[in-house]
Design goal:
The chain has 270 residues and is of the alpha/beta class. Helix content is 45%, strand content 24%. It has ten helices and eleven strands. The protein has helices spanning 2-41, 54-67, 80-88, 101-109, 159-170, 174-177, 187-195, 206-210, 242-251, 255-263, and strands at 43-50, 71-78, 95-97, 113-123, 126-131, 150-153, 181-184, 201-205, 215-220, 230-236, 267-268. A six-stranded mixed sheet has the order 2-1-3-10-4-11. The longest helix is centred in the first third of the chain and has 40 residues, at 2-41. The radius of gyration is 28 Å and the shape is elongated.
Length: 270
């Protein structure tokens, strides 16, 4: 009987150990699979976007990440021309949101974007701003002769600067102002120069002027004086995250996002 009991005990122990081993193995495998799945699900997107989009996109990002917690959106804000050059030189980006059609079209021409994966999403207006409570008596573009310093974006790389120069030329006042111009790296720097009284006036997008309590809008450029201000959006051809990039691309076009753009002064084009 003792022998039989000993054998029974040993058999039970062996069975217990085998079951425990299988259980641990399964548990370990499941944990590893979960960790792997989590690692696969967490994605970081890089969006190269015009500086003038900063505030609207920050609001939209909050809504998007709440809805898609495994996708984190990083923005690279700057002048559209500089961003286009960065992408052309291999800088990582999943989407490009330009303030200029020609910068966008250049990436399409270079084979870095496909036209079918792009859309003209929003538009903007060009306005003349002066420091709050300015004593310079500048009330319109025609009053710019009273300015000692006028700031615009560098026309070669900043679309707002290109439109500004074009407008001033078509108003026949560029030649009298070009010696007074202080060029800026992007439209936000123009706004800062005006806010800090480093210049007497600046030309920025309406959307930038609306977010500042330190400037006054004194005039709006007639749309006939410059090319259409259109912001195209598109997915970079070699994005590492095509599904997630398309997800954010579509999200930027939904009703909620378009309402946010309009709140900041953009005009919907879609």
């Amino acid at each position: 009987i003792m022998k039989k009991n000993s054998l029974l005990f040993l058999s039970s122990m062996v069975l217990f150990l085998l079951l425990a081993g299988c259980s641990n193995s399964g548990q370990s495998k499941n944990t590893e699979e979960v960790k792997q799945d989590e690692a696969e699900e967490k994605v970081e997107l890089t969006i190269s976007a015009a500086a003038s989009l900063q505030d609207a996109l920050s609001d939209i990002k909050a809504s998007f990440e709440k809805e898609h917690p495994n996708v984190h959106v990083n923005f690279n804000f700057g002048a559209s021309g500089s961003l286009q050059q960065q992408i052309s030189q291999g800088a990582p980006a999943d989407l490009f949101f330009s303030a200029s059609e020609d910068k966008f079209d250049q990436l399409v021409k270079d084979g870095l974007m496909e036209e079918k994966n792009g859309i003209d999403l929003v538009g903007n207006q060009l306005v003349l701003v002066v420091p709050k409570d300015s004593a310079a008596k500048i009330k319109s573009f025609q009053d710019l002769s009273k300015a000692d310093r006028l700031s615009i974006g560098t026309p070669e790389s900043v679309p707002a600067g290109k439109y500004s120069k074009e407008s001033l030329k078509n108003m026949n006042i560029w030649n009298g102002l070009k010696e007074k111009v202080v060029y800026a790296k992007d439209v936000r720097q123009v706004l800062t120069y005006v806010e800090t009284n480093n210049v007497d006036a600046g030309i920025v997008y309406k959307t930038d002027a609306l977010i500042s309590d330190n400037v006054d809008i004194v005039d709006t450029a007639d749309e006939n004086t410059h090319g259409p201000i259109i912001y195209p959006l598109g997915v970079i051809k070699d994005t590492s995250h095509p599904e997630e990039a398309k997800l954010f691309y579509d999200f930027l076009q939904n009703e909620e996002s378009m309402s946010i753009f309009e709140e900041y002064g953009f005009k919907g084009l879609k």
